[in-house]
Amino acid sequence: MRQEFLNGCLVTFIEKEFFFQAKDMDIIARFQNMKNQKVVL
Asked: Taking the mean position of all CA atoms in its chain, how far away is CA 5?
């Protein structure tokens, strides 16, 4: 759980230029439309 949270924070930090240009509602809609993905390891 912690690793997933940190990965999400790291992406927004590295790609901050993109997130400054993207609209909040577009980002929210994108994440809400994503489905859970399960992968067999």
From this structure: 10
Count of residues in the chain:
41
Q: How many other β-carbons are positioned within 10 Å of the β-carbon of residue 27? A: 13
Backbone angles phi, psi at 39, to 5 degrees: -130, 135
What pLDDT shows up at residue 32? 81
- Whether the CB-CB separation of 27 and 19 falls below 8 Å is answered with yes
Greatest CA separation found in the chain?
A: 36
Q: Where are the domains of the chain?
A: 2-33
pLDDT tens sequence across 1-41: 566 665 556 566 666 677 678 788 887 888 788 777 666 66
